[in-house]
Structure formats: structure tokens, C-alpha cells
Amino acid sequence: MLKREVPHLQRVHSHVVQDVVRRGDRAFQAFFRRVKAGTTPGYPRFKGRGRYDSFTYPQWGNGVKLERGRLVLSNIGAIRLHNDRPVEGTPNICIIVRNADGWYAHIACDVAPSPLPPTGKSVGIDVGLESFATLSNGVQIANPRHYRTAERRLKQAQRRLARRVKGSNRSCKARALLANAHLKVKRARRDFAHKIARALVNEYDHIAVEKLNIRGMVRNHPLATSIHDAGWGIFLNILLAKAARAGRVVVEVNPAGTSQMCAQCGETVPKRLAVRWHSCPYCGCELHRDHNAALNILKKGGGTAFGEAQPLGGPQNREPQRPQADTAPAIVVLAAEWCCAVGESTACPNHTWWYSKCRHSYLTRALVRRHLYANLPRVSMNVGFVSRDSAGRLCARAESRPL
């Protein structure tokens, strides 16, 4: 029907036209699924001549084949190939893709698994932004930050395109330069992911990684660009593919609590994201936050258990460390004049009263919390915000309360 209505489609192979219809059907099925789910539907966007950058031959040998080192495409002809590697296995699908620097043929093949010899090693991997990945053995892989490195060059290319008259020849040249700059960043990121994944698969039999919700993480706008730049999703997909072919085991675990839980004793040690050092007040374990998370990921993935000896000593945490002691009551009273009084236990000979005139309650809470961490033992705090009249009664009750 399409070939009858559109004459120039008669020069296109039938399987290629069918694949275009199949793509449109998948797009609309996804659209109706999102409508039923109540999420943002996102109506499929029409792709014109300048935006449709690939076409597919879904069956090898029917419209596409290799002859004498050339790729023969139906109704197009024989095209010389520059192979990056020889074709392995049985070809199934051929996708012709237009990139900023030319046309590429992606040939998908059925390849038999080639298991690597076992090494008997297991590893947990915690991906991050400070370092791209931290292994459970303490090795940190530096974050190359490909986009941040090329950001200045990309901005210049974008400004050059913005100054051009839309649709002019100079505009087309500027657009090609911008596309090439982005393509270079993309390829550098994928090359880095391939090399790291290959090294890990060659060395370890059992690999535990986090099952990340990257789409939800990038909603944090201050970190969204850095998260996209790191390319965690690309790396994890490549790692899974290489591990499947090499006969390795990759386990995805729930990342919840891996940074807060101590890898040695299992106790929860709350930390803000800015705190990069793990200091456990229960067992004295001292190690980098990401190293601690990688050990917990390995434990969740079935590699180790709690109680494994961890290194002690190291730089102090940014948050003041709270030594263990008997619990003591502490009452924080916010009066009408935004004053706070913090009373220590009657077990202490010297009562410490700390007043801070603040105009906002959230500042008061932060200052009180900092004071408690710095001056009090590990306490079970009861925090109440009351009027000025009852402030004295509450403080007196705290002092007379038996321990």
C-alpha cells in the first residue's frame, strides 16, 4: 500500500519499509502504554528527512550480503567497507547508521560464548562521581569527565552555530562541526567503558554492581550533568554483555544503605553526601566512603559476609565523631525570641548552656545539632519547640529527671 501511494518507495527494499512501519508501531504502543499508566505520554515525534538517520535490513541475505570485502545493499549497490575487525559468527541483522562523520554498518551476529578460565576472584563495584568506580579491594578508577573536559570547545561550537543564518551553507557547516564535537565525546566515553569492562571481566569471576535508577538520579539538577557525563548506564550494559560472553557472573544488588552501613560490623552510620570518609563509632572501622559501599555491595551480591577485617586509622570524618557512652537526655527548647538552650545530663558536673539568637528555626536546628555532635556523648535526644513560658519548666524537669 505504501509503495502504491508513495512512488519513490518502490526503489526501497520491502524489508526496510516494513521495519520503518514496525518502528512506528512500537512508538505508538509505548505511547498508549504510558497513557494507561497515567505517566507523561510523550506523543511520538515525526522524523523528517533530516532526522531519520538509520534504516534496517532485518534478515541477512535478503537485501544485504558481503561479497569480496564489500557490503552489497539492495537497490543501492556494493559499498567498500573499512572493517574495524573481522565479522565473527553468523550475521543476522544489518543496520545502516548516519553519524556526523559518515555512514556506518552495524552487523549483528550470533556468536557462541567463549568462556574465560576461572580466576576464583570476586569484586564489588561502587560507581560514583568523585571517582568513576571504586572496587571492594580499594582500587579507585579515576573519572575522566569527558564532557567537562570538552565543555569549552562545545560551547564555542554552539555559539558559532547560533550566530549563523538558519538554513544557510555556513549554518550547515557549523552544525556539522558541533555534531563532530559531541560525537568525539560520545566515542571517548564508550571507549573508556569498554576498556574498564574488559579489564574487570578478565580478572574477576563474580562481579556485584548496583542496580541504579539513573533516570531518577538525574532529577537532582546540581548533579545531573555530572551523572550523564559519567556514563554509568553505558558501562553497566557493556559489562553485562562482556560478562555473558565470557561466562562470568554479574549480580545487580539494591544500592539502598550501602554507603551508610558499616562493612565491618553492619551498624548504620548516617553520613551526608559531602562526607567522603567512613568512620564507624562502633567498631573503629576507617576507610573511604566508596570503598565501604563497594564492600557492602560485594556482601549483598554473595561475595563476603560481615566481620571481615577492615583497615583501621586514616583521615577523620568531616562530621565530628561521637564517642560511645551511656545515653543521656537532652532537651532543645526554642523560645519566642528564637533562643536555644541545650542542657547536658546531670551526670556531668558542669552544666553547659548554649544560647544562639537565630531568626530562622532551620538555622537553629543546624547549630544545635552541630553543638550536640561536638560536645555531648552519643545521646538519645528529645527535641521540642515550645513557647517562652514553658522553656524554664522543661529545662528544670530535664535537670531533675533521674538517670
Q: Could you please describe the fold and organization of this structure?
A:
The protein contains ten helices and 16 strands. The protein has 403 residues and is α+β, with helices and mostly antiparallel strands. α3 packs antiparallel against α4 and α4 crosses α7.
Radius of gyration: 30 Å
pLDDT < 50 runs, ≥5 residues: 304-389
Our measurement of the CA-to-CA distance between the termini, rounded to an integer number of angstroms, reads 88 Å
Number of helices: 10
Output the structural class: alpha+beta
Major sheet details: 5 strands, mixed
Overall geometric form = globular
What sequence of helices (H) and strands (E) makes up the elements? HHEEEEEEEEEHHEHHHEEEHEEHEH
Number of strands: 16
Keywords:
403 residues, alpha+beta, five-stranded mixed β-sheet, three-stranded antiparallel β-sheet, 10 helices, 16 strands, globular
